[in-house]
Amino acid sequence: METQFDTIIIGSGIGGLTTAVLLSKVFNKKVLVLEKHFVPGGQTHDFVRTHNGQKFSWDVGIHYIGDLKKGHFGRKIFDFITNNQLNWQKMPHVFEKFVYPDFTFEQPSNPKEFADKLIGMFPSEKDAVQQYFIDIKNAAKWYQSQVADKLMPRMLSRIKNVFSKDYSDLALQTTQTYLDKHFEDEKLKAILTSVWGDYGVPPKHSAFLMHSLVIKSYLYGGYYPIGGAGKIAKSMIPIIEENGGKVMTNISVEEIIIKDNKAVGVKTKKGKNEAIFSAETIISDAGAYNTYLKLIPQEIDIPFKEEIKNAMGSLSSITLHVGFKESPEKLGVKGENYWIFNEYDHNKSYEKSMNNLNIHSAFVSFPSLKDRDVQDHTAEIITFTNYDLFVKWQDSTWLKRDEDYKLLKEKLSQQLLDYTDKQLPGFKDIVAFTDLATPLTMEFFTNWKKGSFYGIPATPERFKYKWISPDTPIKNLYLTGTDAATLGVFGALMGGIFTTAKVVGTRGMMRMMKAIG
Fold first, then answer.
1. Domain count of the fold of the chain
2. How confident is the model at residue 451 (pLDDT cuts 50, 70, 90)?
């Protein structure tokens, strides 16, 4: 077996694969990608279950992506890293429905129409609504400026900042602080933060910057990959292999080998077989927590270990994967997402979810209606929960947990179906199959502490941590993915670009950006 490569990447999430493709395609590097799961792609993979002759498929992390109009920056990147093999289906014009006890707000794929609808409902807050759309763009500008500072030469960065307005106070306040400062109506505050689940932190704790990045990305609607989320990795892996690289699955990285403060290789295990792979550059897409606390030998001094430990949270999710006997279009669904809430206060709802297993809110997605190539219809019902509520079974194994766990899953499945059926009458009547995933499932497959699928929470503090960066204290060792940039699929993809830029230097970065177009 070949053991020497130019670059080794730990993890095959979108950040790792993006880095691998860029190094392979633009810089002719021979890259080895090592994946613990039996399917590559990280949170961009999908999975299939067959039942009574039907073939149901679900995504595990991509429910929709924003700002992918042809010619836009994000679309150019996706087209480049997939060799134009990936096509996207635009979601309906009304692509989100926010369902509250006494009203439903339909979000359109147009920022002016969105603002006009809000002003129509809350005319006394017209000025605040208009300022809000300006502020989310200014907060996003601040982050773009911070990224530029890290990538461009120091002298150019200093010159740029002389002429740039500092929006740090706006970006690094909590979302709740911003809302309370500008708005009066609690229903309006609720509507504006209905998609807090897209970044996993309620308004009281989230950075207004993270809220702004997400809202801005969806101003013109959402997109979904035709053929399913798994097609992303399938389109990228051949590019890596064309240059002599490999993507290996079912292989666990046990340790990053460090000599004289320089990363030189990795120790791996596949079944009972152990192997060592060597490379000039080691890149981890396993997240800051796993990289610094598990993969780097304990004797190596990492000054911010405690900070990383304290930054991690317990927020995870429960996901019910649903297969239908017939199309959910009969319920009036056209492919839009549903965010269903018991109350306007998302902070209270979050706290309740962290303290008990009752259903206080849910996100309902219909992947089969977003992908024209799918025949058998599906849905996903997701609710947030606390990993600690499942700690009783943390030492058991996937598919081998006890009867109490199975009974709990059945109970939670029924609760989620009942909760959704109240808002979409007839939903339960067309259900043919269900499969529930808990935080333990998430932890088993991702290796993320406590099944925390968003990793380091998007609080204001997150954007101040120096270790949220491609750079590490170890020479030739880099991070990629969300912990090199920010959250979400597009955040992880950008992490891949930032990391590649760090590895290849300023001239290499210019070459890469020119190649992308």
1. 3
2. confident
